[in-house]
Amino acid sequence: MNVYDSHRMADTLAPAGFVETARPEDADLVILNTCHIREKAAEKVYSEIGRIREMKEAAARDGRHMVIAVAGCVAQAEGKEIIRRAGTVDLVVGSQNYHRLPDMIARAESGEKIVDTEFPVEDKFDVLAAPKHDAIAKRGISAFVTVQEGCDKFCTFCVVPYTRGAEVSRPVEKIVAEVERLTEAGVREVTLIGQNVNAYHGLGPDGRPSTLGKLLRRLAEVRGLLRLRYTTSHPRDMNADLVAAHAELAKLMPYVHLPVQTGSDRILAAMNRKHTRRDYLDVVARLRAGRADLAFTSDFIVGFPGETEADFRQTLTLVEEVGYAGAFSFMYSARPGTPAAEMTDPVPEGEKSDRLQRLQAVITRYQRSFNAGCAGRTIDVLLEKPGRLAGQIVGRSPYLQAVQVMAPARLIGSVRRVTVTEVGSNSLFGVLADETSTPALVTAGA
Ligand code: SF4
């Protein structure tokens, strides 16, 4: 979501004459778009501000005024504390207010210090400037589109409900218009994003709340769009309509990121996840019943307060039962202000680290086996950009695996049948299957 937000900030600042630079020391404006999920997130931001302060001082010696802004969830959580601790920062803008950046920057340029972290009444998406075609094209053929923000679930370890606020969904027609604009500029794959994306309930054209399943069906009709994905989902919101969409829509990729965090019912309850292990496995089974080639990834936390060896073993058996194609796994660490941060009975660090290694070994085994299962198969690959070798194109399989294939550059932006000849540690290698008889579905810019 921060990638998407950063793009929208750049789009909104473009009419004021700002262009992006890869060298922060050359910039008139540096925005740190921050994430609060990471461990010690605030401390990392202060250390980064220290680095940029040196650039600001060098710019001042050259007679230039550099404006420093801190945006995103750390800005939302820390507010004016940022300017108190780091006086070099000119403005602090929360994740719901960045549509006001042009005005704030104008004020900051005249020396005002600004903090804007209130949840606004207006919808930022109504005010943000639309991206220009050349900016979209530069970002590639795969794009993110925010459809939902915030979360009402209040898992006890998570800061999102406090930093991104309550669940809010964008109206269907506005999302469709954004996706149409992206595809007109050459985008071929869209990932719908939201902290709790399958809780989507934006207003449909009939004025009634829609669902993610209905939204996906509508977007599947957009001309030129080849692939749809969405992330991140909550097991509780995986309703029958969304399960059916997976069975119906060829454009919806058979790949679902479905966080579970732990396989133990006792720890799921302590995490306030609002589902049990059985509920989760039922969702997986319903999705697979509709689409047998569906692959799952997930998120895991090990060493949540009170987690015993027996609880942890439940996580290992869950990984084996689902057979994930991949997963993110982390050792629990407290986030200030969350209920879990107040819990007693911490798991010793050495134990956490041991459990993480054991979990990752199992996840890696299943991931390797999933990738190895692609060898010799012919799969659809969306060709995305030139590879490192001359004549090589990098694409993505339906399961987000990078696929390297020798192919002419004119095929970028099309889905091609590729036979996988080799499985590497980070990507698959393949050859175009039947180049002559399989037409490119759509080429970039067509
Ligand atoms: S559902 Fe996800 S975003 Fe919401 S509180 Fe739980 S972990 Fe955080």
Shape: globular
Mean pLDDT value: 93
Distance between the termini: 28 Å
**Ligands (ions, cofactors included):** iron/sulfur cluster
Number of helices: 15
Beta percentage is 15-25%
Q: Multimeric state of these chains? A: single chain
Question: Helix coverage percent of residues?
Answer: 25-40%
Structural class: alpha/beta
Number of strands: 17
Any idea what the radius of gyration is?
23 Å
Structural description of this entry:
Strand 8, helix 10 and strand 9 form a beta-alpha-beta unit. Residues 436-446 have low confidence and may be disordered. The chain is an alpha/beta fold. The strands form five sheets. The protein has a five-stranded mixed β-barrel with strand order 13-14-15-17-16. Strands 1-2-3-4 form a four-stranded parallel β-sheet, with helices on both faces. The two termini are 28 Å apart. The protein has 15 helices and 17 strands. Helix 14 runs parallel beside helix 15 (349-372). The radius of gyration is 23 Å and the shape is globular. It binds iron/sulfur cluster (SF4).
Task: Please describe the topology of this protein.
Elements: H1 2-13, E1 29-34, H2 41-61, E2 67-72, H3 73-78, H4 81-85, E3 91-93, H5 101-109, E4 114-116, H6 124-127, H7 133-138, E5 142-146, E6 148-149, H8 160-163, E7 168-169, H9 172-184, E8 189-193, H10 212-219, E9 227-231, H11 240-248, E10 255-257, H12 265-270, H13 277-290, E11 295-302, H14 309-322, E12 326-331, H15 349-372, E13 378-386, E14 392-396, E15 402-406, E16 415-423, E17 427-432
Parallel strand pairs: 1-2, 2-3, 3-4, 5-8, 8-9, 10-11, 11-12, 15-17
Antiparallel strand pairs: 6-7, 13-14, 13-16, 14-15, 16-17
Helix pairs in contact: 10-11, 14-15
